[in-house]
Amino acid sequence: MTDVRHESLASLLGGRGGALDASLPPLAFVAGWLIWNHSIGAGAVVAVLCGVAIGIFRFVRGEKPRAVVFSVLAVVAASLVALYTGRVEDFFLIQLLSNMASALVWAGSIAVRWPLLGVVVGTLLGQKARWRRDPALLRAYSIASWPWVGQYALRVAVFTPLWLDAQVYWLATLRLGLSWPLQIVCILVSGWMLRKALPADHPGFRHPRVPESAS
Q1: What is the pTM of this model?
Q2: How far, in Å, CA of 55 to CA of 153, rounded?
Q3: Do 62 and 69 form a contact (C-beta atoms < 8 A)?
Q4: CA–CA distance, 119 with 129 (Å, rounded to integer)
Q5: CA distance 15 to 69
Q6: How many Å apart are CA 84 and CA 175, to the nearest integer?
Q7: How far is CA 113 from the centre of its chain?
Q8: Cα 128 to Cα 214: distance, rounded to the nearest angstrom
Q9: Which residue among 183, 195, 198, 202 is least enclosed by CB atoms within 10 Å?
Q10: What is the torsional sign of CA 19, 24, 29, 30?
Q11: Measured between alpha carbons, how far is 152 from 189 in angstroms, rounded to an integer?
Q12: C-beta neighbour count of 26 within 10 angstroms
């Protein structure tokens, strides 16, 4: 049962496929920028085409290309910022700011006892807030949310000095290295912490144990 919980969480949150899909359009942007004489517009076009191609591939396979859709929208927004400022390093500005905000929001959600991991998983499973009425599951979600805080904080710590120094090549390289590989590690570690934090007799995050008085 433990392994099933672990795999179910990874699959539910998108797994490596979704994380990889989301990282490819930004990489395509940098490739297009380099190939077409540092043209931000060309990079944006290449990134959008890359996202559309991945989306079609996923759709043909009967999968939901949600990660690609959000990634393409993020690329468009990031490209507009870079076009407006005329600085290609500003393509990474939205990501930097979003990681700052995400780290604060995830940490804050733990502090107020509404851990975002529980909110996300509970919503995807149609549980609404039933998981929160399970003390053991609430505690487990709080513990398992910390890896998500850590991944966002790590990106901020790495990207901030590179952005300030306009290190576009390093930003692009580490954008890939700290996107889907780090996301996969975060999901796996979070899933491991979630099941370790639950009592041995708990049925798992798919089955909150709600006290009769609270049901």
Answers
A1: 0.81
A2: 29
A3: no
A4: 8
A5: 16
A6: 21
A7: 21
A8: 14
A9: 202
A10: positive
A11: 14
A12: 26
The tokens describing 3, both together, are 């392994």
Report residue 211 as tokens.
Answer: 């006290």
SS (H, E, C) the chain: CHHHHHHHHHHHCCHHHHHHHHHHHHHHHHHHHHHCCCCHHHHHHHHHHHHHHHHHHHHHCCCCCHHHHHHHHHHHHHHHHHHHHCCHHHHHHHHHHHHHHHHHHHHHHHHCCCCHHHHHHHHHCCCCCHHHHCHHHHHHHHHHCHHHHHHHHHHHHHHHHHHHCCCHHHHHHHHHHCCHHHHHHHHHHHHHHHHHHCCCCCCCCCCCCCCHHHC
Tokens of 117: 């991991």
- What the block records as the tokens of 200 is 């041995």
Domain boundaries, the chain: 2-214
